[in-house]
Write a structure and sequence with these properties.
The chain is α/β, with parallel strands linked by helices. The protein is built from 7 helices and 10 strands. It has a domain of 159 residues: Rossmann fold (3-Layer(aba) Sandwich), CATH 3.40.50. 32% of the residues lie in helices and 28% in strands. A hairpin with a 2-residue loop joins β4 and β5. α3 runs parallel beside α5, α4 crosses α5 and α5 packs parallel to α6. The chain is globular and about 50 Å long. The two termini are 23 Å apart.
């Protein structure tokens, strides 16, 4: 079952007198429970693609369906609801509020949804437990390491129980050891059924996924199958 699908999606921008085709007739799909990486050189359209996948922007041409819904038919309010309920975002720069504890940062998406305080606290603590950070729940970001801050960001993405997690260079600000820890966390989350799309410049990061979608000049250059669905990742025990 396709969780998201692009059919002939293009995105054009005006830069002065010139028209830039950031994406040009892209076809792609991501299945429910799949783990996909998106790669490409600078200017290939990765950021534009991520914005469209995350419903932060809409296509100039073509059709985008997310969880069976035609995104271009939705109003601004309906798009905002999709972003807050169906999509979990993980950013390279973490995007945590410095004055809030880890737990309060994780609670934020639920607060925007109007979830009662007691319920959102319980769900935030559960999400932090999923990323092995429950013991640091009441520390502020400046009291956490880079890896711990990224775990908070991942917990915040998971707390709404999204249809898909979109991660933009999730290890870009981390050293290799901590980055490996975060990638192993993604492996474990994917093993529980979480659908993950990672945008990355790193071949090593990309090859943790089941498929790699390679972009060039706003188009899908090729798609590589790294491992068949159901096959364990290199760090994941079979069975």
């Amino acid at each position: 079952m396709s969780l998201l699908e692009f059919r002939g999606v293009s995105k054009h921008y005006r830069l002065g007198e010139a028209q830039v085709r950031a994406l040009d007739g892209v076809d792609l799909h991501v299945e429910l429970g799949e783990y996909v990486s998106i790669m490409g050189p600078s200017g290939s359209g990765k950021s534009t693609l991520m914005h469209l996948l995350g419903c932060l922007d809409t296509p100039t041409e073509g059709n985008y369906r997310l969880d069976g819904v035609d995104i271009e038919t939705l109003s601004g309010d309906a798009l905002a609801e999709v972003r807050s309920t169906k999509i979990g975002f993980v950013f390279q720069s973490f995007n945590l509020l410095p004055r809030l504890t880890a737990c309060s940062n994780v609670e934020l998406p639920l607060a925007y949804q109007g979830v009662p305080r007691t319920e959102r606290r319980a769900r935030a603590l559960t999400a932090l437990e999923r990323v092995s950070l429950a013991k640091r729940a009441f520390h502020r970001p400046n009291e956490l390491s880079g890896g711990e801050r990224q775990r908070v960001a991942i917990a915040r993405a998971l707390v709404v129980e999204p249809a898909i997690v979109l991660a933009d260079e999730p290890t870009g600000n981390l050293d290799s050891r901590v980055g490996d820890d975060i990638l192993e966390l993604f492996d474990r989350l994917h093993a529980t059924g979480v659908t993950i799309v990672v945008v990355t410049h790193s071949e090593e990061v990309a090859r943790r996924a089941q498929r790699i979608i390679r972009l060039r000049d706003g188009r899908v250059e090729r798609v590589e199958v790294v491992r068949p669905r159901g096959e364990a990742t290199p760090t994941q025990a079979p069975g």
